[in-house]
């Protein structure tokens, strides 16, 4: 509920404060007095874009403030999502500087216009004279019928499952594309894997074979060298080992004469032991090296195959080749596993679709059940507001599953009982749409808690009994909702719980818009003027008193 609106330095408003009642608030005034300007200011705190040209004083900033009483449960999620402080009263402030810079605040916390617009849906339903285009939109028509069915948990449960259904469909499409792409390379990858598997290289085998080939290719040279060295070390006429042993013994004899001799003797002994080991290893090496022509042929064949695969796969080591083999095996296994994943997803998709169709049937049934009383109520109200020959029909057509069920809902309209119904947005005039919207919102208001409803001259083009009935409808809606209505109709003004009069005030060479809450006698006088002119007749005054009663 909008409790208070403060406007400073906007259009022809210098400073204005309006305290609204919680029921039916009527705003009247002469054409051009500034009634719609007030709504223009209100729209700024609802997230509309600002124009610096609207500043009353070009040197000062414009400030619009709205104080709203809210139900915490309705807005708690929004405040939590955007990390805003939530209180029973929400203050929205919009500032426009002289330079054109705009800032917005919710409870003194800066916010952007998107956030402001999102919050406004919980606070105000602004219905202007030509703001009836959504009446012809399928989403709005479905929302109306669902609001009257008033089973939000049923829709919510369906939508949760539908989100999973869409997610599964998306995953299924991705996997199918992945499988199709993989299948194109599957045969070639299998060929490559078979080739590598048949080669069956062990880790580091190619590098080890390369070393082995070097030994086999130089076996004679290696044996000759090793034999000569072994002979010199151990079997010569004066073997090196024997000479080293003699030298060590000689130095050992000097230990009694020089302090460093024992250390040198010990080192010579270590060298002798090490050289003995080396001699043994040389002998062992020499025994192992044998020329083997058959083995050379086998090694050459393996190396030739290995180098061929190196070149084919653009690698340089056995490890890299084995990594490619492992990757190919994983890729092929992945393609085979895709079929299992696809089967599982297809099964889940089928189960979800079956469950969704069952839920959608229930939702459709509830809508169909509500459609007939909805049509009857709307048509009855249309007759009240001066459209006795008009008829509305809610056509429900079942189709593919969507986020809201399986129905396409379309409001069809016949203005003259011709029997020819057509989409409401195509055949209804502006005035017919306005009154039709009022009738629909009055019905919705009986089922769900709507935010503050604002009607800007919705009564254009009607008078007399039709205007009186519009007043009754608004009066009924105001019992459970706050309504703010700009009107030229005395029949509607007479139903107000609070009547505000907008007027222009000329002082100090400036013309400004002001508004005041009328007393009962002032209301009677203004309503009489609305009926008979600036100087109301006694009959007009009496009629005004009747309307105010």
From TrEMBL:
A UniProt-annotated Pfam family: SMC_N
Listed GO CC annotations: bacterial nucleoid
Gene3D superfamilies recorded: P-loop containing nucleotide triphosphate hydrolases
Coiled coil regions, renumbered to chain: 155-185, 335-362
CDD domains, A to Z: ABC_RecN (cd03241)
An example molecular function term from Gene Ontology annotations: ATP binding
Entry keyword set: ATP-binding, Coiled coil, DNA damage, DNA repair, Nucleotide-binding
Domain named RecF/RecN/SMC N-terminal: residues: 1-505
Family: Belongs to the RecN family.
Protein name: DNA repair protein RecN
Organism from which the protein derives: Chitinophaga tropicalis
């Amino acid at each position: 509920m909008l409790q208070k609106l403060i406007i400073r330095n906007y259009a022809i408003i210098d400073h204005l404060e309006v305290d609204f009642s919680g029921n039916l608030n009527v705003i009247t005034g002469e054409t051009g007095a500034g009634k719609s300007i007030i709504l223009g200011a209100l729209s700024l705190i609802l997230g509309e874009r600002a124009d610096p040209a609207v500043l009353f004083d070009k040197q000062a900033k414009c400030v619009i403030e709205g104080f709203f009483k809210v139900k915490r449960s309705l807005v708690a999620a929004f405040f939590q999502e955007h990390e805003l402080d939530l209180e029973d009263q929400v203050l929205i402030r919009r500032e426009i500087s002289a330079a054109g810079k705009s800032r917005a605040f919710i409870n003194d916390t800066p916010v952007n216009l998107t956030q402001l617009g999102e919050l406004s849906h919980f606070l105000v339903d602004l219905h202007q004279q030509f703001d009836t285009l959504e009446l012809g939109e399928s989403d709005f028509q479905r929302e109306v019928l669902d609001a009257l069915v008033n089973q939000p948990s049923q829709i919510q449960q369906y939508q949760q499952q539908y989100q999973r259904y869409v997610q599964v469909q998306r995953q299924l499409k991705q996997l199918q594309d992945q499988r199709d792409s993989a299948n194109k390379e599957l045969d070639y990858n299998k060929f490559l894997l078979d080739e590598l598997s048949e080669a069956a290289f062990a880790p580091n085998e190619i590098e080890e074979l390369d070393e082995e080939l070097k030994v086999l290719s130089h076996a004679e040279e290696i044996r000759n060298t090793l034999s000569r060295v072994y002979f010199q070390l151990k079997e010569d006429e004066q073997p090196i080992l024997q000479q080293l042993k003699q030298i060590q013994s000689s130095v050992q004899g000097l230990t009694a004469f020089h302090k460093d001799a024992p250390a040198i003797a010990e080192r010579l002994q270590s060298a002798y032991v090490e050289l003995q080991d080396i001699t043994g290893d040389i002998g062992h090496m020499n025994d192992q090296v044998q020329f083997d022509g058959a083995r050379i042929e086998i090694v050459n064949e393996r190396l030739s195959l290995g180098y061929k695969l190196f070149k084919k796969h653009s690698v340089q080591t056995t490890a890299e080749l084995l990594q490619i083999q492992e990757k190919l095996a994983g890729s092929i296994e992945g393609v085979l596993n895709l079929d299992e994943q696809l089967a599982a997803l297809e099964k889940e998709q089928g189960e979800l679709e079956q469950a969704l169709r069952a839920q959608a049937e229930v939702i459709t049934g509830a809508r169909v059940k509500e459609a007939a009383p909805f049509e009857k109520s709307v048509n009855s109200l249309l007759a009240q507001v001066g459209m006795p020959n008009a008829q509305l029909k809610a056509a429900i057509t079942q189709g593919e599953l969507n986020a809201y069920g399986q129905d396409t809902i379309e409001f069809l309209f016949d203005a003259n009982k011709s029997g020819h119904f057509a989409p409401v947005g195509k055949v209804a005039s502006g005035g017919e749409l306005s009154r039709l919207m009022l009738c629909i919102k009055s019905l919705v208001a009986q089922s769900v808690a709507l935010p503050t409803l604002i009607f800007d001259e919705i009564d254009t083009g009607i008078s007399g009994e039709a205007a009186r009935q519009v007043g009754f409808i608004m009066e009924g809606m105001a019992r459970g909702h706050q309504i703010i209505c700009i009107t030229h109709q005395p029949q509607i003004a007479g139903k107000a719980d609070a009547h505000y009069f907008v007027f222009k005030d000329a002082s100090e060479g400036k013309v400004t818009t002001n508004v005041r809450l009328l007393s009962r006698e002032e209301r009677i006088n203004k309503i009489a003027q609305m009926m008979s002119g600036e100087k109301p007749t006694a009959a007009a005054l009496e009629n005004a008193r009747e309307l105010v009663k």
